[in-house]
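HUMAN: Mind sharing a backbone?

ASSISTANT:
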Amino acid sequence: MTPRVPVRHAARMDTLQRLEATIKQRLTASPEASYVASLAERGLPVIARKLGEEATEAVVAALSGDETDLIGEAADVLFHLLVLLAHKGIPLEKVLAELERREGMSGLDEKASRSA
């Protein structure tokens, strides 16, 4: 068996961008045919609650020490965050730009700048 070659950072971002595009398309699909559309049909409170549930499951997995569970739950959090962002019409690029803006800034300084 050939060892897997690590995917480059840009290719990983492509994965998120492809997922974002797929989610955007599925928002308007039939709720009977698409999980994303079924969430969207039920509205923002359901989407937000589902993201919260997935985040809680990620915390539980982190505390249990099971790496495989945490990886799966982290993927669920990212997926449901992308669903929420798409539902609100916020492109992932805006979130990435905010992360870039914060890059190199102390977390304490960044937090203080939001309360000022």
In short: The helical segments are 9-26, 35-42, 44-64, 67-88, 92-102, 107-115. The chain is about 75% helix and 0% strand. The mean pLDDT is 89. The longest helix spans residues 67-88.
